[in-house]
Amino acid sequence: MIIDFLKGFAQTSKHAIRYLSGKGSVTLEYPEVKREQPPFFRGRHRLQRYEDGLERCVGCALCAAVCPSEAIYLEAAENSAGNQVSAGERYAEIYQIHLLRCIFCGFCEEACPENAIVMGPTYELAMDRRTDFIANKEDMLDPAEKGFGTYHDYDPYVSHVSAEADAGASSDPWTRS
Amino acid sequence: MQPLLDFIGQFVGGPGNALILALALLKIAILLGSVLGVVPFVVLYERKLISWTQDRPGPNRAGPWGLLHGALDGAKLFFKEEIIPAGADRLLYLMAPSLVSGPAFLALCIIPIGPIIDGPALASIGSLLGISPDTLGPMGAVSQIALAVTNPSVGVLYVLAITSIGVYGITLAGWSSNNKWSLLGGIRASAQMISYEISMSLSVIGVLLIAGSLNFYDIIESQKGGFWNWNVVAQPLAFVLFVIAMFAETNRLPFDLAEGESELTGGFHTEYSSMKFALFFLGEYVNMITVSAVCASLFLGGYLGPIALFEEGTLPYYLAGPLVLPAKIFFFLTLFIMARATLPRMRYDQLMNLGWKVMLPLGLANLVITAIGVGLGYDKETDTVSLGARLAIGGITLGLLLATDFIYTAQRKKALAAQYRNFRPQAA
Predict the structure, then answer these.
(1) For residue B1, what are the contacts with CB-CB under 8 A and spacing of at least 6?
(2) CB contacts, 8 Å: A18 with chain B
(3) Which of A55, B219, B243, B318 has its CA 20 to 30 A from that of B9?
(4) What is the DSSP letter of A91?
(5) Set of chain A residues whose Cβ sits within 8 Å of the Cβ of B66
(6) Chains A, B: CB pairs < 8 Å
(7) Is the peptide bond before B254 cis (omega within 30 degrees of 0)?
C-alpha cells in the first residue's frame, strides 16, 4: 500500500516537474496563440476567386437550394461587357449567409459546381448584435490581390473537385473544362 | 512608548498590563492579517500545482502569473447574491459558517512561531522601543514574550478540543440547509471526524509521553538540537497516523466525503452562497494551515531548524523561527495538494475500515510501545527520554507500520484474486 501510494505521488510529481521544466504543456494560451486548423475544418465560409481576380461564383443558387437550414440568400445579376465580375454569364449581386442559422454542414461547398464557396478556417464568430451574424459577400469574398484558389491545394476532404481536375481551370469561359 | 503605556496603564492597572494588552492585540492583528492575506495565495498555489500535475499552466490571467486570482475570487464572492433556502433553520444556517472558520483561527492562536523572547534580548527590545525595564525586561512586569497569541499550559488539549468544534459547523450546515444532499454530507462529516479524532488523539499521546508536557513550547523545546531529536524520528507511526487523520480532519481529499461533489453536489455547503460560502472556503484553508502548523510543531520541531545553527539568545536565533515554521507549513500544504492531485476519494466503508480497524489499533499499539520505551529510557536528571530509547521506539513502531502494510497488501491481493478467480469475460 505504501509503495502504491508513493508510486502515485511519483507519477503526479513527475508531471508537475515535467511541466515546470518547460515541456509537456498541452495548453495553448488561446487569445495570444491560436491553433492552426486542419484543411478540412468547417468554419465560416469563403468565396473564392480565380487567379485573375474574377469571382468563381456564377450565381446559380445551388448552395441556397441544398442548404438544409436555408441560411443562404442569393440574388444573381448578369455580367456585362463593362462589368465582368465573375467568370460565367451571371454573378452573385447579393450573397448573404445567416451564420446563426448555418449549421456548418458543408453541403454548400459540396453542391457548388464552380468551387466558389468553401468552408474557411475562421471559427471566432462571436458578435455583439444579431445583425452582425449576417455575413455579406464582402465579408466572405477573398481579397482580390491575394486570395484565390488556394483551397484546393490542401483540401483532401471535398473530393468531387480534386486539385488535378481543377488544375487547368481558368476564368475564360471557352477554355474551361 | 513609555509615556503612552503609562497613560493607558492608568485605566488598566499599570503600564505592564497596558503592554500585555498591546502585545496581545498586536499578535492577533499579525496572525489574522498574515493568515487571511496568505489564504488567497494558498488557493492559487493549489490550483497551480494541480494544473502542473495535469500538464497545464493553471490560472494565469489576472495579474502576473495569475497572482490576483485568489484575491479577485474573494472579491467576487462579496458581490454574489446571498440565498437562504426557504426551509432552512435560519439561526443555525447563519451560524454554521462561522462555526467552521472560527475554531480554525482559535487553534492557530497557540501555535508558537518562534522561541520565547526573554533575558538580554528582551531588555534590548525594551530599550529599542523606549520602554522602561520595569515594564518590559527580565525583571519587569512583562518578563517574557511568547511568539504565539497565547501560551496555555494545556495547548495540545486545547487544539484537539477546538478543532473538533469545527465539525459542529459542518454538521449543522448540512442539517439546517433542509436539503438531503447537505444532510448526507453533514452526517458523513460528523461520523468521519469522530472516527479520525480518536486516532489523532492517540497518535498525539505518544508525543506527549516523550515531551512530558501538553504545552506547545515545552514540546518544541524538547525536540531541540537537531532533526534526530524531532518527534518524527521517535514516532514515525504516530506521524503517519496524524497525517492521515489530518486529511480527514480538514475534509480534504482523499477524505472529502462531506463535500463529495460528484455524488452530493457540494455536500454540506450545497445551499450556501456568497460570503457564507466564502467562510466555509476560508475555514477549510485556515484549517489546513492550522493542522499543518500543529503537525509541524508536534513532529517536525515547529520553529526549530533541522540543525541548531544559531546560538540561543542571538538575533538570528529569534529570526529563524518565523521563517522555519512557514516553510514546514508550506511542505504540508504541498502534501495536501499533491494528495488531492493523486488520490481518488475513498468510499464510506473504506473510510470507516481504515479509521477503526487499522488506525485505531495501530495508534493503541504505538501508545503501548512508546509508554514502555519512555519508561525504560527516561532520564530523571535531565527530565528527558534518551536518544537511544527514542530511536528504539521509532524503529519498532516503524517496523510495525511496515509489517501492517505488508500484511494488508498481501491480504488485499489475495482477496482481489479470489474475487476475480471465477471471472471470465463473456464470449461474444
Answers:
(1) B129, B130, B131
(2) 55
(3) B318
(4) E
(5) none
(6) 48
(7) yes
